[in-house]
Here is the input.
Amino acid sequence: MHTKLYNDGTHKCIVFSNFVPEDNVLANQFMVIDGNHAAIIDPGGNLIFKRLKLSVDRQLFGKTLDYVIGSHQDPDIISSMERWLVETDCKVLVPAISSRFITHVLPVDKFRSRIIGIHEKGMDIKIGDAILKAIPAHFLHSEGNFQFYDPVSKILFSGDMGASPFLRYSEKTEQPVEDFSAHIRNIEGFHCRYMSGNKVCRYWVNMVRGLDIEWLVPQHGRPFKGKAMIERFLTWIEELECGIDLVTQENYKIP
Here is the structure.
């Protein structure tokens, strides 16, 4: 299924969900359209490629797919990239820091002119008359991670930050969080394990508080809608001890 998060007639933001079989880690895929141009964010793996490609084609209606963008190098993000390069004329954007490693999933020599590394400090990505901003989210959780902010829709596509990856479809993962306190149980364990430490979380919060955000939409699970709910999440993650904050010698023993 797909849901339009924003549509002003020219500019659209779409989330595709429920494509991953429920016995796997559920994931969302995203599409930004401006005029006759479009980009896909975090397209996922071969597991869902055919269904996603069909849904994308229905949304394009002759428009140009300029970019397929990967926020980091995990297989649920980039393992379908070769198929997008083969079956469309798009260019692929991936973090420059991981571009040497994607040779394991992409024949780089064959597509070298169509693979672009995202600079460590981020970059502006032109889609039609709009700009999608790749902003650094390093070590949250990947060392070369990026998120994507759309100033028109005021949506932050936040990758694993804010994710609730272990929800089931029956829990209405496409619906925004309504009770943050109740939702903590769905995000706490994941963030404690996958975010590298509180220091980086605080730097990230300081950065994104400078953006005008109406939606914070993670790659997994439920989105956060409205400034009040987003601020609840920012305050929570800003204070969370996670990653190396929780490590002790007990985690490093010979079995």
